[in-house]
Amino acid sequence: MVAVSDEEGEPMKTEIVEGWPQGHEIRILITETDAAQVNAIRRALISDVPKLAITRVDFSQGVTQDNKGDVVESVNVLPDEVLAHRLAMIPIPTPADEGLVFPEDCDNCRDVVEKDKGCPMCQVLYTLSARGPSADSEDGFRTVYAGDITTISDPVYDINEEHKQIPLTILAPGQFLEFYAFAVLGRGRDHAKWSPAAAVGFRPQRRAVLHKPKKASILFDLGLTTSEGTKIDAKLFGKDKVVTNINHVMDLENALHQVGEGTGRSEEFADAITLETVANAYVFTFETDGSLDPVTAFNSALNELNSRFVDLSEDIKSALA
Ligand SMILES: [Zn+2]
Is residue 321 a part of any domain in this protein? Predict the structure, then answer.
């Protein structure tokens, strides 16, 4: 891992590709670097960037009677362990500036016994109370969603709007579900529930060069467009006959599959357009689960690397603005 430091070269540079982030997805151009260094960032993003996840659930258990005399029981189709796992996988918003600390670093909790660990400095508290449809209802069951969870701690930790539709379980008449859930900071290397990013990948930066406009018409005549809707034709290549726009090059890479090996068009196309690799430059792509925005997650990955490898500190000081 020490090899990720490139002491000879220029410090690594990072830049968000135009048009990104889109939702939780981002493309970042990383230059003055090599594959080992970019891969170290990839691994840090998956395994080292801290985020919140539910790690303990206290279920209420038993049979009770409500004020109308209906008897409800704490059972449902899923075992508690399965439900706890589903809760763990719900993305928990992790704002960077709230000052939460890891339970093992918490001044209040470090030296207390396991069962007393947990305080407002190191954990976020949620609760849920739901019951199945009443006996006279026409519904056979009720679905319980992540949106039914209430934050007892600060509302900044409320489950994101987009995640409220995640189903947890179903309750039949006479069943209830009640629990307290505790979220703490953790890292993906300890459990996937603490991993903030998915689909993390990178590829060398490339540029597309138009060599033979006539033969390229086999591709252009297919009427394909870039992801934002620009026609893929000779005009896209401009006077220089080169496409450098990273988004367009990635679209072209996909489009070229239409004239590649096995399409019956490759011979006629005859490499009319080729992709050339740009030295020491990579396009880094990933998506967060929504607990962190992608820029925060990326900067946090650089910080994690920085804190662990003194050698790297020079190389990775160019965090995204
Ligand atoms: Zn604590």
Answer: no
